[in-house]
Specification:
This protein has about 160 residues and is of the alpha+beta class. It folds into two domains: about 1-120, Rossmann fold (3-Layer(aba) Sandwich), CATH 3.40.50.300; about 120-160. It has six helices and eight strands; from the N terminus they run αααβααβββαββββ. The strands form three sheets. A four-stranded antiparallel sheet has the order 5-6-7-8, with no helix packed on it. Strands 1-2 form a two-stranded parallel sheet. A hairpin with a 2-residue loop joins strand 7 and strand 8 (about 155-160). Helix 3 packs parallel to helix 5 and helix 5 (about 65-85) runs parallel beside helix 6 (about 115-120). The protein starts with a helix and ends with a strand.
Length: about 160
């Protein structure tokens, strides 16, 4: 993609910082570390892959649900705070679960419940389409209607 855009790949890769969270506490701590990093360099995008994965694995059963949701809520608000203070975009990926008793509307719900569903400003569902295409469906937005966009991810970048 860099070559297609006329940008040096090595320079681009040096500007990307990656940290791997080993548990939910570490994941929360990494937002603090990102905040420290943002004081030194301009951070415009922070991506959290699989937002709720560690939380689901560590807080098992209904007895720990309230604690999990409180920590997850604080974590989501720390991410929102990071975005506001740094004028940055935050992108999180998350799993969804089917809700079979839903007779009307979307039967899928974000893992993490209302905390994740209501804290995220925009919710986009991604799915595979035919012939290598991808479909992004905007589910929730404060100022845009629901809709879909079809795109391809190629070596030249994202094409519609």
């Amino acid at each position: 993609m860099c070559n297609y855009l006329g940008v040096d790949p090595e320079t681009t890769l040096r500007r990307i910082h990656i940290a791997r969270a080993f548990n939910s506490q570490h994941q929360v701590l990494l937002v603090d570390k990102a905040m420290e990093l943002a004081k030194e360099i301009k951070v415009k995008l922070l991506i959290v892959d699989s937002l709720t994965s560690h939380f689901r694995a560590e807080f098992l059963g209904r007895g720990s649900l309230a604690e999990r949701q409180q920590i997850l809520n604080r974590h989501m608000h720390d991410l929102l705070n990071f975005a506001t203070l740094n004028n940055a975009a935050i992108v999180v990926t998350n799993q969804v679960a089917a809700k079979p008793d839903a007779f009307f509307g979307d039967p899928t719900r974000p893992i993490g419940g209302h905390v994740v569903g209501h804290t995220a400003t925009f919710r986009v569902y991604l799915r595979k389409g035919k012939a290598g295409k991808r479909i992004a469906r905007l589910i929730d937005s404060p100022n845009m209607p629901e809709g879909e966009a079809v795109f391809n991810v190629t070596e030249d970048g994202i094409k519609d």
